[in-house]
Amino acid sequence: MPEVALTANTLRLIERIFPSELHASVVALLEAGCGAGLPFMGEATPEGLERVRFAVLKLSKGSTTQLAREVALANIDWRDVLVAAEFATDVHAHRLWLRERLRA
Asked: pLDDT tens-digit profile of 41-54?
C-alpha cells in the first residue's frame, strides 16, 4: 500500500503531543501504518484519514508505545479507536478536539 501523507493539522497535533525528537518516528508510523492499509480505506485521502489519525493520537497520550498499540487496533477495526476517542457519534468531534488541543 502506498503511504498517505499527513495533513497540516495532523502535523500540528504531533508537535503538540510528542517531543520534537519523536516527530519523525510518529509521522512515519502514521503515514505507513494508519493510512490506505486500514480496512476499507484503500482510496483514502489525507483529509479522509484525519478522524482516525486524530483518534490514535488522542488515545496515545504522548506515548509512542501506546500510539503503536492504537494504530494496530485501527488496522483491525478503526471504528474501535473512534469509539474509544469519543469521535464515533459526531463526524466533527475530532475537529473540536483539535481546537481544544491547539488552545492548550
From this structure: 878 899 999 999 99
